[in-house]
Design brief:
By secondary structure, this protein is α+β, with helices and mostly antiparallel strands. It has ten helices and 17 strands. Helix 1 runs antiparallel to helix 3, helix 4 packs across helix 5 and helix 5 crosses helix 8.
Length: 414
């Protein structure tokens, strides 16, 4: 197709999809454009729809590419083709919004034209919004944890799922972690699925306490965090084949279990995945044939006897939930200092390096998990806060709290 800055119209699945500004560069390093993104999703549409199709999707838009500001959009654009399906979703806040439900490749192309790099589906079908049919295991390494350790925790998680007669379908997160998609029968509520995920996380931690953690508060974590709260209502994760906002346009790649031990997430990008998909097909093609029961995990939750764990911010308090106060703000405080706040994670991390140069003696005692990188999510966008836990620094060497660097004035509702 001849390249031009003028809009282009594609015919996809019987619909005409207009691509505005098709040569808009979204990934500066490899110079991938909006049209490249559209063509990518058309090439992997069968797999992408298996992961995100038929479900309400939150839109995560990068109108000026990955180096510009992005924003979250729950409400489907008012100006949309008549063939774009929507469904009204109600959130824990009490608000409601009509979200996009992609059903075919044309809908994927339309979303790509909006600069939606990632697909962020809820774990429910549009036909039944109250009963998830997917339990999501998000293995999220703390800073300093190696990919090898993520692979080890993935194998342990698979063993736990096997013991409870559940089938995990692995995929790279497209960032530093791994996801396991677990198809379940749509018989349980969001809260019940979350408790099952919590029981799973605690069991993984019990089997490998030096490798994995189920602790919600970042200052208590070490190793790979098994993020049970990704199963709370209104939470979404990047679906299979989603393009992530990384400089190399890395994607969330479905894997066979034989590949988990040896794969390198950097091998799976917008450029390489179409050929892989053409050769291997969708490695998650059989997922819908293996819907399991979470009764075993719910029984495990009761046997563990540990009760509920903290929920994400902004969720209503539950009667069985422990105090929603991070350890550093309780009586026995951890020695934390806040370094900086910035819209871009890279800018916040640069502030850490400046802090280390100012305090080399203290920095020499830090362990990777002592640098707490908090992705703070407002109503429409995210920003990054960075704190440092000085627990491993001798008391005489601990710097006091300094003015934030950087200190971008960010409203929590931004």
């Amino acid at each position: 197709m001849a390249k031009s800055s003028a809009a282009e119209t594609l015919t996809v699945a019987g619909h005409e999809v207009t691509i505005s500004n098709p040569q808009k560069v979204l990934f500066p390093e490899p110079q991938y454009t909006k049209l490249d993104l559209v063509q990518y999703y058309l090439a992997v549409s069968e797999g992408a729809l298996r992961g995100a199709g038929g479900r309400p999707n939150m839109l995560v838009r990068y109108p000026n590419g990955i180096e510009g500001e992005h924003f979250y959009q729950k409400r489907a654009p008012a100006s949309r083709p008549s063939w774009i399906e929507v469904v009204e979703l109600r959130f824990p806040s009490g608000r409601a919004a009509e979200e996009v439900v992609p059903r075919d490749a044309a809908a994927l192309a339309w979303l790509a034209n909006l600069a939606c790099l990632e697909l962020h589906p809820h774990p429910v079908r549009a036909e039944d919004l109250d009963h998830p049919d997917e339990l999501r295991v998000d293995l999220d390494p703390v800073p300093g944890v190696t990919w090898r350790q993520v692979q080890q925790v993935t194998a342990i998680t698979r063993a736990v799922l096997d013991d409870f007669k559940l089938v995990g379908w692995p995929k790279t997160s497209g960032s530093r972690g791994m996801h396991l998609c677990v198809r379940i029968e749509p018989r349980w509520t969001f809260d019940e699925v979350r408790l099952a995920a919590l029981a799973l996380a605690r069991e993984v931690e019990r089997r490998a306490p030096k490798l994995a953690t189920s602790k919600w508060w970042k200052e208590e974590r070490q190793g790979v965090f098994v993020d049970y709260n990704q199963n709370a209502k209104d939470r979404t994760v990047a679906a299979a084949y989603s393009v992530r906002p990384r400089p190399d346009a890395r994607v969330s790649a479905p894997l066979s279990w034989d590949e988990v031990e040896t794969c390198d997430p950097a091998d799976f990008t917008l450029a390489t995945m179409p050929a892989r998909f053409k050769k291997l097909g969708d490695l998650h093609a059989g997922i819908d044939e293996h819907a399991g029961s979470i009764e075993g995990l719910l029984n495990l939750f009761e046997r563990q006897g540990l009760g509920d764990a903290p929920w994400p911010p902004h969720y209503r308090r539950h009667s069985s939930e422990p105090p929603r106060v991070q350890p550093s703000k309780r009586k026995s405080k951890l020695p934390l200092v806040e370094i900086g706040r910035a819209r871009r994670k890279e800018d916040a991390l640069a502030g850490v390096e400046r802090w280390k140069k100012r305090h080399p003696q203290a920095a020499a005692h830090l362990q990777p998990a002592d640098v707490l990188v908090d992705a703070m999510r407002g109503r429409y966008s995210t920003w990054t806060r960075i704190r440092i836990n000085l627990q491993h620094v001798p008391e005489a060497l601990r710097p006091s709290q300094e003015p934030l660097d950087p200190d971008e004035k960010i409203r929590s509702s931004s």
